[in-house]
Design brief:
The complex is a heterodimer of chains A (262) and B (787).
Chain A (H helix, E strand, L loop, with lengths): L4 E3 L4 H8 L4 E4 L5 H6 L7 E4 L9 E4 L2 E5 L4 H7 L5 H7 L5 H6 L2 H7 L6 H8 L2 E4 L3 E3 H4 L14 E7 L3 E8 L6 E10 L2 E7 L7 E2 L1 H9 L3 H5 L16 H18 L2
Parallel strand pairs in A: 1-3, 2-3
Antiparallel strand pairs in A: 4-5, 5-8, 6-7, 6-8, 9-10, 10-11, 11-12
Helix pairs in contact in A: 3-4
Chain B lengths: L15 H5 L15 E7 L5 E7 L1 H5 L3 E6 L35 E2 L5 E7 L2 H8 L3 E6 L6 H4 L15 E7 L4 H10 L2 E13 L7 E7 L4 E6 L4 H13 L6 E4 L15 H13 L3 E4 L2 H7 L2 E13 L5 E13 L26 E10 L13 H19 L3 H8 L6 E2 L5 E2 L4 H11 L5 H10 L3 E10 L7 H7 L7 E7 L5 E5 L8 H13 L6 E4 L17 H28 L6 E4 L2 E4 L5 E3 H9 L14 E6 L8 E10 L6 E11 L6 H20 L30 E4 L19 H20 L13 H8 L2
Parallel strand pairs in B: 1-12, 10-11, 14-15, 20-21, 27-28
Antiparallel strand pairs in B: 1-5, 2-4, 2-6, 3-5, 7-15, 8-13, 9-10, 9-12, 13-14, 16-17, 18-26, 19-20, 19-25, 22-23, 23-24, 26-27
Helix pairs in contact in B: 9-18, 14-15, 15-16, 17-18
The chains are: A alpha+beta (262), B alpha+beta (787).
Chain lengths: 262, 787
């Protein structure tokens, strides 16, 4: 690890000022950034911690929207969403292990946009919004490919809003080593239609499986997707599965998510 | 009633008090005043010619004491190989040089090129980034068969090829085996891979060396399973330090699984540098370094063929294996695919003719050496997989086919050079079938099917050769060391004992189980016995811990030393009781004379030995301390039967191990709880291999599975509750304890049962899948199901 300066702002304004430095980077729970720095694969000169910013770590639900502060830990999301959005709570409760969930934050995960992370599927399927220090970004516009988002340099996620669906479920098929999603599918049935978001599978990161959404909009049952198929082209192929295998799993996990949605 | 004391009792492990309360003293916990830190700059290419290493900027960096390169080790010895294999034609193996730091070429990702010694670890690492390397990358060889083709890039330019040796065993049987295959009613052939693994002990390797200029003495603290062997190899072969000037200490060690048997370059470097710099030098491996510098395990590619007659009697067995040595020969690398593998190919069966061919191959990968089981898992996996396949092909129940071929009379001389002293393979098989509730399988399969899952049942038998010995035999086979063990039993004046054993405990629980034996022999409380190990300055000699040899060989040495102590104590007691020594008995911690009421306590005899006021000084020296070296007459042969039940999700290919039963014959058992734990750990590693673990390289020799993000270790929730039994006991006939060894059985016996179970699930559900290579990851199982 190279030397760096650690800034601990107490307000969003202070944080944004500290992040203006070209060499600065926001630090949530550090579950990705710190190991990367220890490996000397990242060398920010200044880390700006989001953990001490007042009002940024809460989780609340009101008017059909669940709002999580950008610095809310996975554990906080698990607890805070348990009553209002159980599918999201279950997702958060199955990220990493208790130590990871006690440190890692929803804002950190979404800013990193790991192609195998869980939250991107939840946010995209929920039709949510990423709230930053300067704007609100619709989930459909936010994710722009592996480790790529609509965030500008120095832009800080202050909150994440999820539209709570009528029924939802997340099915995560774990990669055996990392236990990140080899394929994760979040299905959400909203009043205005069904949204199906897939993480872990595509070389372009999280995506919506629109064909399944249309079919499920007409018939919200596992049978509705059994005749569909996802092309293997563009899927990730690695030690843990071929593109064909991942494409197959997308369909299986979608069917299971629909069957389990409540 | 279970015993509460001595052999057969299960006292809790006394060492766990310090391990579980953070009081263990591991190598990295040791700091010596003034120590410097070394960081190794390692190759990031698999194969390359070193054209220049410019260390000037690194030398000038803050805190740097000195930068070493291969040039500093000109004239210093290389890392030795401890076992010379002779090939089919009577020629010695090709044995390349293995310099401490790379000279001329780098040969695998992780090969150390330079070492920066600095005041702090971070300074060493910072400075290493300032070293300018000019390395001409060369084409790498990764695949063993490609490495043997004409014109393949050579890992070692001065060798004739990448073939280390072409070993035939038993070479004289080759034609007779071929003839038996020609005449056979049925031949079953199976191609399989025993994949490369990374040992991953919880504690990464550490080396800390200190040098005392005034006495010219070096001390190395290291994470080792056998400090005396390191002293011998490093002192004699690498650095030229006589043993009386070199102390090696292996304190608490957090798991080894074989990977800490070997002498590593980092140990030699720290000892060399400490002497050069007159500063203690410390190296602590990161987990990332461990993946590319700890010796890997397994990595065999095999074709096995079994010839059977009409009734399924085995007529002959033939195997053809390519064994990956990696880029250099690690300490015992060459013995693993040969003498630890070929001699086990008879398994539990009366196969009259066996021929084993092994081609050991150099590739641009991390060296491969012994990993829990070492050769025996590879043998068992091939054999028990091909038997299962033969059973299916011939329509014979796999249990019945095995029974039909069991060895039932002992001693039994196999056609592959070893003689099994004792065993009862039907007994362990019957026990396994009983406790696995095989009779209830159909009902469980129905319940699984109702959930949309496929249930399968697989079984296998295994035999292993433990307590590697005797020295005279292994010497003939090419070992460059003896394989005895030593122990000193020191009795103190007030009756307590200290046993100094050459066996090293790094999780095995010797500090608990060894005292149980002594306590039984004397009839005293176990807490009166203390075990000392892991320090060449305190233990006279040792060959260390591997091959499940500690109790069978090290424990036997301890028994022999204790017998000498007791014999002398009886003479002292005889003097005190004015009786003849041959009339003196020792029981329950007291000496008595048969037929009289004369008695003297153990403690009084010990006191007399050290306060010899009333003592037969003209016949006996004072004191009570004896040493014994024990060199066994034969290997020991634990054996057993394992049964696995799995559920396969046909939609995803995911395998869940639902039930696992292990019935083992370990001979006599000293501490049943510790034996349970050893079997549990072995099963976890065997199931880990079968289901999860794989060390993968890409075609350029880059290590793809270089962290836990891609290397899947087994976790508790991957494993079922185990049903473990070791009540079937045929005691070893040639060691004083009648023990056989239990450390590796679980890892040896479990992979074939699991794979057999998955194949069974496929077959029961109409899929013509006859083999899937490990690990049986969801993707592999699903792909196999697609046909």
């Amino acid at each position: 690890m190279y030397d760096f300066e650690l800034v601990k702002p107490s307000s969003v304004d202070e944080a944004v000022k500290a992040l203006a430095d070209e060499d600065a980077q926001a630090l949530g729970g550090g579950q990705t950034l710190i190991p990367t720095m220890k490996q000397r694969l990242a060398s920010p000169g200044r880390l700006v911690s989001t953990l001490g910013i007042s009002g940024m770590d809460g989780v609340s639900a009101e008017g059909g929207v669940l709002t999580a502060g950008g610095a809310a830990t996975h554990g906080a999301v698990e607890k805070g969403a348990a009553g209002s959005y159980p599918a999201l709570a279950a997702l958060a409760g199955n990220i990493g292990d208790p130590a990871v969930r006690n440190r890692g934050t929803i804002g950190g995960s979404l800013a990193n946009n790991d192609p195998a992370a869980c939250y991107p599927a939840a946010l995209l399927a929920s039709g949510g919004t990423v709230v930053t220090d300067k704007r609100e970004i619709d989930a459909d516009d936010y994710f722009q490919g592996m480790f790529t988002t609509a965030l500008d340099e120095g832009e800080l996620i202050t909150a994440v809003k999820f539209t709570i669906p009528e029924a939802a479920n997340y099915q995560k098929f774990e990669q055996p080593a990392s236990r990140f999603a080899l394929v994760g599918v979040f299905v959400a049935r909203h009043a205005g239609g069904v949204r199906v978001a897939v993480t872990g599978a595509s070389e372009d990161g999280v995506f919506r499986w629109t064909e399944a959404e249309e079919a499920l909009g007409k018939d919200f049952s596992a049978a509705a997707v059994s005749g569909l198929s996802v092309p293997a082209e563009g899927m990730i192929g690695d030690l843990h599965g071929t593109p064909e295998y991942r494409a197959h799993l997308v369909k299986v996990m979608t069917g299971r998510a629909v069957a389990a949605a409540s | 009633m279970p015993k509460d004391h001595g052999i057969g009792a299960s006292p809790k492990r006394r060492e766990d008090v310090r391990f579980l309360t953070g009081k263990g003293r591991y190598t990295d916990d040791i700091d010596i005043h003034g120590q410097a830190y070394v960081h190794f700059l390692r190759s990031d290419v698999a194969h390359g010619r070193i054209k220049a290493v410019d260390t000037s900027a690194a030398e000038a960096a803050e805190g740097v004491i000195r930068v070493f390169t291969g040039a500093d080790f000109e004239g210093v010895g290389g890392i030795p190989c401890g076992w010379q294999v002779t090939d089919r034609h009577g020629e010695p193996m090709q044995e390349p040089a293995h310099p401490v730091l790379a000279q001329g070429k780098v040969r695998h990702v992780g090969d150390p090129i330079a070492a920066v010694v600095a005041e702090t670890y971070e300074q060493a690492r910072d400075a290493a980034e300032k070293i300018v390397l000019d390395i001409e990358e060369l084409p790498a060889v990764v695949d063993m068969k490609a490495a043997l083709k004409d014109g393949a890039p050579k890992v070692h330019d001065d060798l004739t090829s990448n073939l280390c040796f072409d070993w035939g065993f038993v070479e004289e049987n080759k034609d007779a085996v071929a003839e038996a295959f020609d005449k056979a009613h049925h031949v079953t052939t199976l191609d399989l891979v025993n994949q490369r693994l990374v040992a991953n002990p919880m504690e990464p390797r550490v080396a800390l060396s200190d040098y005392a200029a005034h006495s010219d003495e070096s001390t190395l603290y290291t994470t080792s399973q056998n400090p005396h062997v390191i002293r011998l190899l490093m002192g004699a072969f690498v650095l030229g330090i006589p043993e009386h000037k070199l102390r090696v200490v292996a304190p608490d060690v957090g798991g080894g699984f074989g990977s800490k048997i070997f002498h590593y370059a980092e140990e030699a470097f720290c000892t060399f540098a400490a002497k050069q710099l007159k500063r203690p030098v410390k190296w602590t491996s990161s987990r990332s370094e461990a993946f590319m510098s700890d010796a890997h395990g397994r990595d065999h590619v095999t074709t096995i063929q079994l010839a059977l007659d009409e009734e399924g009697h085995f007529q002959a067995l033939r195997t053809d294996t390519h064994a990956n040595m990696g880029a250099y020969l690690s300490t015992f690398s060459t013995s693993v695919p040969t003498w630890l593998h070929g001699v086990l190919m008879a398994g539990n069966y009366k196969t009259p003719l066996i021929y084993v061919n092994v081609k050991a191959v150099f590739t641009n990968t991390v060296p491969v050496d012994a990993y829990r089981g070492a050769g025996r898992p590879e043998a068992t996996y091939q054999l028990e997989r091909v038997i299962d396949k033969a059973a299916r092909e011939m329509g014979i129940d796999p249990v019945e086919l095995r029974r039909r071929n069991f060895i039932t009379e002992f001693p039994y001389a196999t056609p592959v050079a070893v003689e099994y002293d004792t065993g009862d393979y039907n007994a362990t098989l019957d026990k396994a079938l009983e406790i696995a509730d095989v009779a209830g399988f159909d009902a469980r399969a129905k319940a699984s099917a109702d959930k949309g899952l496929w249930r399968g049942l697989g079984m296998n038998c295994y035999i292993e050769a433990c307590g590697i010995a005797p020295s005279a035999l292994v010497g003939q086979l090419g070992a460059r060391a003896g394989l005895y063990e030593s122990a000193t039993v020191r009795v103190n004046a007030t009756g307590g004992l200290v046993v100094m054993t050459g066996s090293h405990s790094h999780g095995q629980g010797h500090e608990t189980s060894f005292p149980q034996v002594i306590a039984d022999m004397i009839g005293i409380d176990e807490n009166m016995v203390e075990i000392v190990h892991g320090d060449t300055a305190r233990v006279p000699m040792g060959m260390g811990t591997y091959g499940s040899r500690s109790l069978a060989v090290g424990g036997s040495a301890m028994v022999r030393a204790a017998e000498k102590v007791i014999a002398k104590a009886k003479r002292i007691a005889a003097h005190l009781m004015e009786a003849a020594p041959e009339d003196v008995e020792l029981k329950d911690g007291a000496f008595s004379v048969a037929g009289t009421d004369k008695s003297v306590a153990w403690g009084d005899v010990c006191l007399a030995a050290y306060v010899p006021h009333n003592y037969p000084l003209e016949e006996l020296e004072p004191g009570l301390e004896e040493t014994a070296f024990y060199d066994p007459a034969n290997f020991t042969y634990p054996a057993g039967a394992y049964i696995c039940e799995v559920e396969v999700d046909p939609e995803t290919g995911k395998v869940r191990v639902d039930r696992f039963t292990a019935a083992d014959d370990f001979g006599n058992v000293v501490n049943p709880m510790i034996v349970d734990g050893q079997v549990h750990g072995g099963l976890a590693q065997g199931i880990g291999q079968a289901l999860l673990e794989a060390c993968a390289y890409d075609e350029n020799g880059q290590l793809v599975s270089a962290s836990y993000m891609d290397y899947a270790m087994p976790r508790a929730d991957d494993l079922p509750m185990f049903q473990v039994d070791h009540s079937c006991q045929t005691p070893c006939t040639h060691n004083p304890l009648g023990v056989k060894g239990c450390g590796e059985a679980g890892a040896i016996g479990s992979p074939p049962a699991l794979v057999n179970a998955v194949i069974d699930a496929m077959q029961r559900n109409g899929r013509d899948v006859t083999h899937i290579d490990m690990p049986l990851s969801p993707a592999r199982v699903w792909t196999a199901m697609q046909g």
